[in-house]
Amino acid sequence: MLSYLLRRILQMIPTLAGVILLVFFLFHYFGDDPAEILGGLQATPEQIASIRKQLGLDLPVWTQLWMFVSKVLTFDWGSSWATKETISNIFATRLPATLTIMIPILVLEVGLAIVCGLAVAYVRGSLTDRAVMMITTVALSISFLVYVIVGQYLFAFRLGWFPVQGWSNSVWTNLAVYAPLPVLLAVLVSLAPQTRLYRSFFLDEIGHDYVRTARAKGVSENAILFKHVLRNAMIPILTNVATQLPGVFIGSFLIEVFFSIPGLGREVYGAVSRGDYPVIQAVTIYLAALTMVINLLTDVMYKWVDPRVVLK
């Protein structure tokens, strides 16, 4: 196991290096000039040149690349070009709000999808199964923006169950008052496709020979589903969660914009609109690194779920 982990970590180094080079050159050659964005329409050429010098954009490309790599390795991205706030402080103050939204969404999405998928697989071929598949198909065709508009109107304006906007310094207040509505809407959006996908995972396992053998030996259907099928289906489920986790992170960014939550996503949205490259680059690099770490942890969890898995 240790040798496998070391090999995987060493394999992550060139991948991360490629991401760093890609991000740097994309922003350097294909992005708008940050000096012109920060200077505004009325800025003179002299003012733009002064801004470029302050930002270090007048240095040779390889010097800028080395400075960029140094920022990644030292976790010191300096300050935002627009707000002058240190990027480390941006992460420290905005990330808790993002995690307050993201973690409940992930837990509820995976847990409910497993329960719903297993329940539908249990009644496979029945009228309930077909009705659930029809409902999920309709739900898949509805845009997330529609969920937000209808959810805010119904649950906030009409029923008054939740506030539309707001945030506090208390984690428990946020979880109990401000987070339920955006979390509810995000889970509703993701539940339909995840239920259909997990149902297919369970049905695929039900069709295997070991299930027919267990039935022939007189094992109950509940024992087959919960003791055998569920455990064997956890490997594709873990794979799906690993691939979806960065998407959940990005999805929480959109929720922060819609509900004015002071998280990292709203900060990134503002950074994009004002051309604040250091903030965007830092989030992009760290999100890529997080994705690689998640994939590594997922591979390790395969061994925990199924001892027959051999990590090479």
Layout of strands and helices, then pairs:
Elements: H1 2-29, H2 34-39, H3 45-55, H4 61-74, H5 87-122, H6 127-140, H7 144-158, H8 171-178, H9 180-206, H10 209-216, H11 221-259, H12 264-273, H13 277-305
Helix pairs in contact: 1-13, 5-9, 5-11, 6-9, 7-9, 9-11, 11-12, 11-13, 12-13
Could you characterize what this model shows?
The relative contact order is 0.13. The chain starts with a helix and ends in a 7-residue tail after the last helix. It has a domain of 184 residues: MetI-like fold (Orthogonal Bundle), CATH 1.10.3720.10. The mean pLDDT is 81. Helix 5 runs antiparallel to helix 11 and helix 7 crosses helix 9. The chain contains 13 helices and no strands. It has 312 residues and is an all-alpha fold. It is globular and about 85 Å long.
Radius of gyration: 24 Å
- What's the helix count? 13
CATH level 4 superfamily of the domain at 88-271: MetI-like
Count every beta strand, where a strand is a DSSP E run of 2 or more residues: 0
Please tell me the overall pLDDT: 81
CATH fold title of the domain at 88-271? MetI-like fold
Query: Main beta sheet, described?
Result: none
What's the SSE pattern? HHHHHHHHHHHHH
CATH class of the domain at 88-271: Mainly Alpha
CATH architectural category of the domain at 88-271: Orthogonal Bundle
Strand content bin: under 5%
Distance between the termini: 9 Å
Helix content: over 70%
Uncertain parts = none
